Amino acid sequence: MADRFEILEETSHAPERQGAKEEADPALEKAMDALTVEDADVKDVKRASDAKEEGNGYFKEGRYLDALDCYSKALHLCPIDTEYAYNRAVYSNNRAACLFHLGRQEECIDDCSVAIELSPKYVKAYLRRAQAYEKLDKLEEALKDVKSVLEIDPTIQSAVESEKRLSAIVTERQEKMKAEMLEKLKGFGNTILGKFGLSTDNFQMVQDPATGSYNINFSQTKKP
Prior knowledge:
mainly alpha; Serine Threonine Protein Phosphatase 5, Tetratricopeptide repeat; two-stranded antiparallel ribbon; about 75% helix; TPR_domain_protein; TPR-like_helical_dom_sf; Mitochondrial Protein Translocase (MPT) Family; TPR_rpt
């Protein structure tokens, strides 16, 4: 009886041992791993979206630090895959909005730049970065961003108005800088030319209306 029992016991375990020796299908394992990763991504995308919605609520209440934390969490949770690039751009731009209201303009610009890199035609990021640049009195950079928006979509009215306003200010500043530079050069020139009984008044700059370039005319009249 003992022999029979031993044989039956061994037989009852035979299938288990046989299964243990079988090798797993590599293709099946790969498919299962991919499914697991995809399932995890979907969950993280949902959690990131929930964090963003929570941040939106805080933002509307003016609780910018709390909103910033939520958007940062969303950015951390969101997968870095290319297909989620726009999601990450949105979270970065939302962070930038909080930083703008907190007066942290340099950081705001950094987050806007990240958003633009992730989504090159994301006009909201360009407009917000332009606002931050303007707060820092970097008007030429702000104007450049506004022009980028108009290249993407020329119908955005806020960009049209900002382009006109900034262009006028930038042009005025550039002309003022030119005038100040010419005055400094004139003073330096008079110091040198005075040794020869001349002054910069002996030289006249005449602009060619066709090309915009300048010609210098010399007058023989010496300084008394």
